[in-house]
Amino acid sequence: MPNWGDIVEVLFLQNYNTRLVVLSTTLLGVAAGFVGSFLLLRKRSLMGDALSHATLPGVTIAFAVMVALGGDGKSLPGLLLGATISGLAGIATMLMIRNTTRLRDDVAMGFVLSVFFGIGVATLSMVSRVPGGNAAGLESFIYGKTASMLQSDFVIIAIVAGIASLVSLALLKEFLLLCFDDGFASSQGWPTLWLDLCLLALVTAVTVIGLQAVGLILVIAFLITPPTAARFWTNRLLPMILLSAIIGGVSGWLGASISALTPDLPAGAVIVLVAAILFLISMMFAPARGVFPRLMRQAHLRRKVNRQHLLRAAYEILESIAPDTGIKNSSFPIEALRIKRAWSPEQLKQVLRVARREDHLEPVGPGLLRLSEPGFGEAARITRNHRLWERYLIKYADIAPSHVDRDADLVEHILGADLVSELEADLKTEIDERNLAVPVPASPHLIQPEPPAEA
What we know:
This protein is mainly α. The protein is about 70% helix and about 0% strand. It has helices at about 5-10, 15-40, 45-55, 55-70, 75-100, 105-125, 140-145, 150-170, 170-180, 180-185, 190-215, 215-230, 235-260, 265-285, 290-320, 335-340, 345-355, 375-395, 400-410, 415-425; strands spanning about 330-335, 360-365, 370. Strands 1-3-2 form a 3-stranded antiparallel β-sheet. Strand 2 (about 360-365) and strand 3 form a beta hairpin. Helix 2 runs antiparallel to helix 11. The model is unreliable at about 430-440 and about 445-450 (pLDDT under 50).
């Protein structure tokens, strides 16, 4: 187990090698967060996976070429150049399949992923037997070799990640238009093909520099997991993209730091696991789209709907008790309420418990209920909105009065004050806003149709 001194050394980047690894993976995470957001919005999440597998032939062929020219074949810039060329060839293949055939994007990506990776595996076994060259270590590009980073590697990652992040921010408006409606962008004269190529070039650049950190198999997680996690936290585009970059940077920093404290754990795998943990936290607890907040909102809506059904049913029961003398707040039997809403005894008991807790009911006696003063006012308001909406559906949606109650129940719970005012103005109800003596219009079910005029 690491002691406190080891933790301080890693947190403050006191070790030279740790500093290179942590800073490199953090910058890579930020760039992957930016670029991966557009992949997610473009619905091309597997593009990074296809490109990462397409880089393997370039790595092996670049090694063989450098050995043939008299080098040792292990120059990182040369290997990354080969990976870039191979990745661009994969992009060209995907675009050719998409633009010259009727096949979909997923077919093109699956073809490039499998064929290029197969070529890479075959050439990897071949270059291992190249005379005068030692291909040992090339397989580390498959799984990543973060711990062996040099300063030259850090410089390359920093430059490419910085350029990718700046280009993503500079072309933010254009990329967003391309992601959401490329047909509209093309009709407005935007160079959608060149924008698509630019985005794919950024994906290729981030994928290639990610080979050194997390490997070609795990780099897809670095491109997709941060934007997917950020999507749970906000519904706005710019905050999502910035948050994706932050999550990617935190994943790289925290994963590399944990790997430095526990040398037995490979940094690439730990980085991806940290990103996955942040994704799970976002999926469960993010206030905008998280599972638990959504369940809480649904439970709150169910309580609200049940409360409104209870109060409206109680108000209608009070109307039926004294239809001629006007409605007054008085006690009524619980059984009438259960029959009115067709609730089971358990459902009714739960709804009544919530209503008592919210001070909408007053205790009267066994088998009897009475609305409290605020409960009576809330019941009148809910019934009024329900009948306004019923009349709107009858008049404008041409729904029969015998069916309108069911349809109104589905919508009335989200009626706001502005919409209620519009309904009052459009329908020209008998309610005079300056005289609240008649706050609730009569039920449309009780309004008799006018007899037809005689010929």
